[in-house]
Structure formats: C-alpha cells, structure tokens
Amino acid sequence: MNFISTAQKAPPSTLADAIRSGLAQDGGLFVPETFPSIDLNSFTPDLSFPRFAHKVLEPFFVGDILETQVAEFCDRAFNFPLPLKPVNANTFILELFHGPTLSFKDFGARFLAEALNFLSDTQKTTIMVATSGDTGSAVAASIHLKPNLQLIILYPEGKISARQEHQMTCWDDNVHALAVKGNFDDCQTLVKKAFQDREWNQRLRLSSANSINIGRLLPQISYYASTSFEFYRQTGEAPGFIIPTGNLGNATAAYWAKMLGFPIREIVLSTNANVVLPDFLQTGEFRPRPSLTTLANAMDVGNPSNFERLQNLFPNFSTFKQEVSALSANDEDIRKTIQTFYQEYRILICPHTATACFARQSLSEKPWIVVATADPCKFNDMIEPLLKVKVPLAESLQVMLEKPIQRISVEANLNAIKQLLKKRGII
Ligand SMILES: *Cc1c(COP(=O)(O)O)cnc(C)c1O
Fold first, then answer.
1. Model-level pTM greater than 0.85?
2. Which residues contact ligand 1 via a Cβ below 6 A?
3. Which of 15, 93, 321, 372 is least surrounded, with the fewest CB atoms within 10 Å of its CB?
C-alpha cells in the first residue's frame, strides 16, 4: 500500500519511506492512499492483543519491506496489559497507560522504535524530538538499547514536572536529553532548524518521532479496533469513545479504526482550555493560536498538528461536523471531575483523562468508553493535595525514579547545541 501526503503535491511513498522521513516532501502529513476493507469475521476472541494488532496493521504493510516484521514488532512493542474497567452501567475506562512510561504514547513510540531500528540496519539513525511532556519519556524508553538508533530530546528547562524530567534524563546510553533555556515553541523551532541544516541532516540521518510520524499513528488504531470488537462481541452494542485530545494523533487513530469498519458508534473529543477544535466546529474557521497552560499539560496545543489528517478524512465541513464533536473542560472542571470520580467511584484519574470524564457527564445513556491516557501517579503533585490521598506509584516509574539523572542545560541556539553534542562525542 502507498501513502500520500495531505498537501497532495508529493509523490506517493512506501510505508517504510514514510516512517523514515516523518514528514512528506511537500510538508504535508502521510495518510493511507486507501483504507483496506477488513473482514471482521476473521478476528476471533482467542487472539492475544499483539496478534489482533498484527491482523489490523497487516494490510497497511502489504508489499512493504517491513511486511514480514510486523508480527514481531507487535509482540515486542505491545507486551503490557490493556484493561477496560467498568465505572457504571454505561461508562467504561480504557486504561492505555500500562506501558513502561505510563502513557498511551508507549504504544506508538515502541512500535515506531522497532520499525526505525529495523530500517537503520546499515546506517544509524538519529531521532530528534521536541517535547513538553510524555512524548520524550515514551520515545526515550523505546529507543534506549536499540543498537541502530540514538535520540536527542529538547525540552524546555524548568517548564516540565520533576517526574517528567526524570523520565527523560535517566538514560545513560543512546538517549541525550537537553534542557533548553526557552519554551516549548523554541524547542520545536530548533528541531525544525536542525532538519533544514544540511550538515546536520546528512551527518546524522535525522528522523523524527513526533506524533506526525505515521509509524506512531498506525499502531494506535489497534487498541480502538480490539476494544470495540471485544465490547461488541460481549454486549451486542457498538461503544462510543471519548478521547482526551491535544495534537489529534490519538483521535485520528480512532477515526481510522472506524473507517476500517470496527464497531465504533461515535467519537467525541475532549480538550482542555485550548479550544481550537471546538471553535472550528462552531465557526468553520480553523484558527491556530498560542497554547494556554493548563492542568492537562500534554494537551496544551494551540495548533494541533494532525488536524490536516482529520480534514483529509472529512474534507467537507458538514461531514466533518457530523463525524467529529468536541467538548472542552477548563481547569476548574478538571479539578471537580477528579474529585467526583474519586468520591463516587474510588477511581483515580489523571488531569487529561478528567477532560474525557467531564465530557461523559453531558453525553447520552448509550455505552461510552472513556480513554485514560496517563497513569494518575505521573501527576501526584496536583492530585494528592486535591484529594488528600496518596496516589500509588507504579512500579515502572519507581524504578526510573531510582536512577540518577544528569541535567544538561543549553542555550536556545542551534550552534550551541551542535557544539555541546560535538564536545560530548554524540555527533
Ligand atoms: C499526548 C497526550 C495527550 C494528547 O494526545 P494527542 O494524540 O496529541 O491528541 C493526551 N493525554 C496524555 C496523557 C498525553 O500524553
């Protein structure tokens, strides 16, 4: 299968090339040329999640050099549980946070690392990402110990939580995290500049691992596919999903699962106070703006990068409005919802998941699956004073927190970064 660019100017690309390059030559994002039709009868209840995921992903890889590897990628990448827990009669929580760094980003990052490592057999690849939160740790943990890859992370110094920083800076091998004296936008600009820098790009064979990479997005289809399939098999009803949304990566994967024919009734997106998407649905005008800082910081996005993919799926505004709905929650709603879920159900939720739980309260009595994107223990700073209870620390985080860290600060300047990396023998 070929992949085409949302900007429609670049020639079609193989999946391996699309994964390697991240962005299409014309600056657009890769999307599948067609959606394969899937025979739901060929999925049986005895399939393990990695086997199920393989069957979902297989058609996208037909004819690609990665085709024969997908089964193994799934086995290695998806080696953690995916529980669906009941909240009440028609509300369920899908916990996507049982991977090594405790957010849903482990699914995409681990699969992508497998693919890039395989594709870099003859020449090493350097992955460069800018991050303000969970991406850095998920990508770091995925790339650590992959022999053909190295990772450079840029994060804004002093602007991420202590635990988030720890999860990025505790690796001592092929993962290099730099604390940039600037904000997230500065980090992102620096990464873009590095990609445009000839010497840098040729020497390092740069690749990205941001959520625009199709190699992160495709694997995320599989948990919507498997969860809706199993829910339908057990109850005879197609569930709706409510998805906490920032860059619209996780959401795009859900729409793609629905396109493939999996039994998904409808999809509702929840945002924090960054309301570009709800505003678009109201006005028909897509107006990117600077992001606001909220309690759900991994969703502080003012210009959602995967919007182009959703628009590519639903080019006509009235269809877009029919298929996509969005509800927003401000910080006060987030706090109240975390309290309510604990008091009524004894369930601890993270601030991102709280936006979806908040949205649930104003939706129908039909069955809804709330997508839980991160483990609440990553946000103990905020949750513990609010609820006056201790949030249990997940074991994988505890192990990471026991490792020593090394903070490397650098000016927000590409030359300064180059010099620092040269001095440390990294490039
Ligand atoms: C990244 C992230 C999100 C937003 O996901 P997108 O794919 O960018 O929409 C939501 N919650 C958590 C915890 C995240 O880390």
1. yes
2. 103, 105, 133-134, 211, 244-251, 298-299, 352, 373-374
3. 321
